[in-house]
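If your schedule permits, I should be very grateful for your opinion on a structural question. Kindly check, if you would, that the fold set down in the tokens agrees with what the sequence suggests. Thank you for your consideration; the sequence and its tokens are set out here:
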Amino acid sequence: MRRRQAKKHALIPDPRFNDTDVTYFVNNLMLQGKKSTAFKIFYSAIDKVTDRTGEDGLEQWKTAVDAITPNVEVRSRRVGGATFQIPHPIRDSRKRSMAVKWIISYARKRNEKTMADRLAAEIVAANKGEGNTFKKKEDTHRMAEANKAFSHFRF
């Protein structure tokens, strides 16, 4: 075990919306240290969401992240030679991390032409309760519900 917990680094708010959640998202979106490119992609995706829905793009993004944030997950645990999938509640920082990474990974797998288009489409789909990210959340919850009988193995 660790001697002490790792320090949480303070994030600088983004320049356009002055929001640290946006910076966190962009840091996960960034590839090869190209932060300015990641900001351009994110901002153009938010503008496209605004054009498609007619509502504030940043608010749509925040509700999409909230909509796909999981509450429970299953973790493997060996008990008596057998491996069980045991449902565990998730701490808040991990919830946000999982939601952000799911949006980005499923946006990268979409077929639109640019990453901004893919990200915008994934945000709109998550708001409607459809799309791959929402399906991933539902599958996670379904797996935890199916293995609820093994929750007594949790510490």
Summary: The mean pLDDT is 91.
